[in-house]
Amino acid sequence: MLAGYPLLSLTIWVPILAGVLVLATGSDRNAPLARLLALIGSVAGLLVAWPLYSHFDPSTADMQFVEFASWIPAMNINYHLGVDGISMPLLLLNSFTTVLVVLAGWRVIENKVAQYMAAFLIMSGLINGVFAALDAMLFYVFFEAMLIPLFLVIGIWGGPRRVYAAIKFFLYTLMGSLLMLVALIYLYFQANGSFEILDFQALPLTMHAQLLLFMAFFLAFAVKVPMWPVHTWLPDAHVEAPTGGSVVLAAVTLKIGAYGFLRFNLPITPDASHYLTGFMVTLSLIAVVYIGLVALVQGDMKKLIAYSSISHMGFVTLGIFLFNTLGVEGAMVQMLSHGFVAAAMFLSVGVMYDRLHSRQIADYGGLANRMPVFASFLMLFSMANAGLPGTSGFVGEFMVIMAAVKVNFWYAFLAAITLILGAAYTLWMYKRVVFGEVVHASVKSMQDLVPREFFYLAVLAVLVLAMGIYPRPLTEVMHSSVANLLAHVAQSKLP
């Protein structure tokens, strides 16, 4: 806590209580009030999260801003919160993304406005709980509960196949996490009745137990990332979700899977993690290369960006399982960069969809003639998505490639292919949408950005450039925690 303030609890409960307050506004007759309260609540959530960064001590790997209270004494389940250099930046990313989502849906959502805004606020608090929880059962509760608002967002405000996409998303993620629950219960008994995640990390487990636990956690987190071949739910979810749902999916929820690998797989099952390195690297490289090729043939912009996200997240899992500082830090930087860039790309598609109600690349063309300011923003974000030096998209990928060279040249060679594929599918989409003559009559009536849209795209543009030019403010807060994690993983936990 900071000067007696329970900051982590505030980051969780301020958005949730704001969401409940927004729900209380009732029908759409009070939609302006619901929007205003949602904006205030999301900004308040970001403001209470900011001191986690400004008062963070980067010199230590210990958990900071720790809060502890007994929750279910009979089972020794506690309300135990804390963040380190791995979880704190992700919590900030989530709080920032919530503000973007509220702004993006300000005029677009006209039905059930209060329920829409409340779903994102409540989900924001629950996701912050995932990143802050130090009790495994508390983590699991937040991990499962955050599915509910996102399920409703896709199922109620999504496209024509929204129910199918929502159910597929829910079943994939729920089934994956059930084995994680079994693993947590096993660890509870091994730790003499403790659900403390840090206690789990100190257990001397046999190789057989580690392998089984690794696979249980792997199934839960690989679906979330998502890794190939359990990725098929994501394109459907992105295509059918409203813009806000796609933004949260890409910018935040995918990171929960990678965070799970860093918080559970590596420190709890270090020997199994080393043993299965080839398996994890292979799946990661398949995602980078094969999914990049799949993105190349997409005609739907949302589906193209969805496949692009899977390919870029392959870089994250590759970096994690290289077991060196540059790789893990590169994975962390890639997670944060992808949060900004993917959010920007989906918001940009949302800007176009709000005007033309089409996501098909073939329905556009010559957009620069009608929306030059928007075309400039989209150019920057497209370049960042392709990994252009000077943008955030380059930094994490370059760090992971450099880390891969130290381990195996061919890992680095295959990973670097994504820079070529990323440029191919992103710039080809940009060319067809933005350049050329205006051939569709509907494009001729499209108007450039309104101030609200300009504001949130400009903020993202500044962050993408700032992180690409000077990433140190992020890398320095994670360095001690990453070094401590790798030192822990290097020590065998075999009895």
Distance between the termini: 36 Å
Overall SS class = mainly alpha
The backbone outline, from C-alpha atoms, is globular
How much helix is in the residues? over 70%
The amount of beta strand, in percent, is under 5%
Based on CA atoms alone, the radius of gyration comes out at: 22 Å
Please trace the helix and strand order, writing H or E for each element: HHEEHHHHHHHHHHHHHHHHHHHH
Low-confidence stretches: none
Q: What spatial order of strands do you see in the largest sheet?
A: 1-2
The chain-level mean pLDDT equals 88
Describe this structure in words.
The protein has helices spanning 7-23, 31-54, 88-104, 113-132, 136-145, 147-157, 162-190, 197-200, 207-224, 233-240, 243-268, 270-275, 277-296, 301-320, 325-356, 367-370, 372-385, 392-407, 409-434, 441-444, 451-469, 472-490, and strands at 64-72, 77-83. The model has no long low-confidence stretch (mean pLDDT 88). It contains 22 helices and 2 strands. With 495 residues, it is mainly α. A hairpin with a 4-residue loop joins strand 1 (64-72) and strand 2 (77-83). The chain is globular.
What would a concise description of this structure say?
By secondary structure, this protein is mainly alpha-helical. It has helices at 7-23, 31-54, 88-104, 113-132, 136-145, 147-157, 162-190, 197-200, 207-224, 233-240, 243-268, 270-275, 277-296, 301-320, 325-356, 367-370, 372-385, 392-407, 409-434, 441-444, 451-469, 472-490, and strands at residues 64-72, 77-83.
